[in-house]
Amino acid sequence: MNKYLSRVSLYTPDLEPALEFYRSLGLEPRRELPARKGHRAVELGFSGSPGQASSEAACLILHDDPRRQFTDLEIEVEDVRELYKTLKLNPAILWLELPGEGADGWQATLRGPDGNVLHIHSS
After folding, report:
1. How much is the CA Rg of the chain, to the nearest whole Å?
2. Pairing state between β 41-45 and 28-33
3. pTM of the model
4. Is 80:107 a contact under the CB 8 Å cutoff?
5. Which of 15, 61, 92, 103 keeps 20 to 30 A from 120, CA to CA?
6. Per-residue pLDDT tens for 25-72?
């Protein structure tokens, strides 16, 4: 299995101007995503990302939920459980969600030493 960046999620206080801006860069809205009541989340992506299967094409998610004012990334890795074993003793990493099996594979969430939130996943 290849490792790849699958998603970047960004907060924006005003979704419509942000959507217009990212459209001007060539990103196209793909779908509305579930969001907390009174808020929206939209997935965008480039059509026909060269060299990638559609399941591996990274997407951008824009949302307007002020409770999630941070950037987070989703990264597909070889094995979430092995990565956890490797990184669990690093005191600079905070595990927000320990590895667990979900509907489409193993996943975990961590805050890296730089403060960014990473969702890691393996099929």
Report:
1. 15
2. antiparallel
3. 0.74
4. yes
5. 15
6. 889 999 999 999 999 999 999 876 555 555 557 899 999 999 988 888
State the amino acid at position 108 in one-letter form: A
* Count of C-beta atoms within a 10 Å radius of residue 122: 20
11 and 64 Cβ atoms separated by less than 8 Å: yes
Q: How many CA atoms lie within 13 Å of 66's alpha carbon, on the beta-carbon side? A: 3
* Residue 33 identity (one-letter amino acid): L
Q: For residue 80, what is the enclosing H or E element?
A: helix 80-87
Please name each of the domains of the chain with its CATH number: 4-68 (3.10.180.10), 77-122 (3.30.720)
